[in-house]
Amino acid sequence: MRWSGGGQWVCPRTQHKVPTHVSESDGRTGAGVARGGLRGDRFSRSRGHPAFRGFRAEGSWTLASYAGFFESELNRTVFWRTLKLGAIVTAVSAVIGYATAYSIVTLPPTARGRMIGLVVMPLMISPVARTYAWIVILGRTGFVNETIVWLGLSDTPIRFLFTETAVFIGLLQLFLPLMILSLISALENMPKDAVPAARVLGANWLQVFVKVILPLTKEGLVIGGTLVFTGSLTAYITPAILGGSKVLMLETLLYQRVTVANDFASASIIAMILMVMSFSANLLLKRLATARNKR
Amino acid sequence: MTSRLLSYVTLTLVLIFLLGPFVIIVAAALSGGETLAFPPQGLSLKWVMKVFEVESFRASFALSMFLAIFGTLAALVLGVPVAYAASRYRLPFGETIRTIVSAPIIVPGIIVGLALLRYLVIPLDVSVGVALFIAHTALILPYAVRVVSASLDNLRSDIEEAAVILGSSRVATFFRIVLPNIQSGILAAFILGFVTSFNQVPVSLFLSGPGVRTLPIDMIWYMEITYDPSVAALAALLAFLSISIVFLAERFLGFSRYV
């Protein structure tokens, strides 16, 4: 986000200046005003597109630029926010995932197949469509706000869009199926009698989970967790649509650095951070897979 | 008994969370009002109709279709030989080749797009369209290789040997014995590649120029400037398109065997 002083916000995509009081209280729910959607003439100046300007004028690339990158408070905030949201989404999806996967695994076979189909279905649909639904639901005149006002819980609509909560909800909906599917296959490989045996021997549900289910499905949890965590870290669509420039995450920050500021040094650093995280997650998955094949 | 009940409640809530948004999108798409609101004011098909009238949607739909179809075909042309070589021969640097081929899945899409923009489009003056095509082909390649490999692993190699012994050349054997036998795997790879490419955003993000935008990116732009339900209508149409493609594939191919 680039603040040009005087309460103005410069749109990341169009470089239009938008007075911040407009984006603070966007009259509409839409992404439009809040993200400075006055698109302007982006496409009429073909070579003048922000991303095309001044490429040859960038500085050299040393390790010092990493330190410089983390000196900026905005960059630090975005970095920690991305990690934090990734961790929360992973943790919450693990909790919901276990409950759901266990419920599905204990169903009779036909019903189980159908339920798995329903869990897979959202994965086939365009993430843009999936994320857009939350604008309709969480918007100012959306489903949730209409209900809140109708119930008299609040006189004015509550702002949900462009908050971390909205991004969290969007990411959770996007990645929860991956966690559920990983846990289903882990639970299916668990010996069928383990849970009843533990119950008969007097363990309560918490003990059963911690001492029986968790150790036996650890691998599935790690696989699902890695998919969800890296997915959240490298998500673009959800933070772009539901977070806008108020809730920047690493990918949206990268996009903004390039298109607004032509700041390729920062963009490369963010790219490196994303690559390192993605590669290490992948290595971890590969190691787990080979460990399993050996057994 | 209580645990049974508890699991039904869990499943219902999770399904509402995962699938409820689509019900809302469809409701919004069929709304008669001028802006997005819930409950929708009246019922009409006007926003669904409007989707087909928006010029930029038509152009970006055509581009997305082109990329999804020809990008996937190109990925298959590259990927089928890779999969075949990897499954039938012990290759030198086999592991390295496998890593390179699967790299486009591991590297976050936005970085692929950024790299292509910086090192291909800008310095070499390659057109954005060509870069998009390369990016989508590279993105689909890992999926193509994986799905076709799975299909090849199920094909016994002694059928090929029988054909060779009976006098067929290696090339003829590939085209007349191997290809017909892995047909459905190739079709499954095509469908997976098509859906992946069509829904892809991050890779294409930096690779859009004047009049060159893929449909999902066009949707994001459109929803920034307007607040009418036509995006909801388009989202609903796309959701139905993806679901029916996958449903038909599962029905006739047993798609899930390959993915």
TrEMBL record, chain A:
Pfam families per UniProt: BPD_transp_1
PROSITE patterns on file: ABC_TM1
ABC transmembrane type-1 domain mapped to chain residues: 79-285
Compartments it resides in: Cell membrane
GO cellular component: plasma membrane
Keyword Chloroplast in record: no
GO biological process, one term: transmembrane transport
Keyword Coiled coil: no
Membrane-crossing segments per the record: 85-105, 131-153, 165-184, 196-214, 221-244, 264-285
Topological relation to the membrane, as annotated: Multi-pass membrane protein
Spans annotated as Disordered: 1-45
InterPro entries: MetI-like, MetI-like_sf
Entry keyword set: Cell membrane, Membrane, Transmembrane, Transmembrane helix, Transport
Similarity section: Belongs to the binding-protein-dependent transport system permease family. CysTW subfamily.
Protein name (database record): Binding-protein-dependent transport systems inner membrane component
Species per Swiss-Prot/TrEMBL record: Nitratireductor aquibiodomus RA22
UniProtKB/TrEMBL annotation, chain B:
Bilayer topology term: Multi-pass membrane protein
Domain ABC transmembrane type-1: 61-249
InterPro entries: MetI-like, MetI-like_sf
Gene Ontology cellular-component annotations: plasma membrane
Matches recorded under PROSITE patterns: ABC_TM1
SUPFAM superfamilies: MetI-like
KW Cell inner membrane (keyword) present: yes
Similarity section: Belongs to the binding-protein-dependent transport system permease family.
Name recorded for this polypeptide: Putative spermidine/putrescine transport system permease protein
Native source species: Nitratireductor aquibiodomus
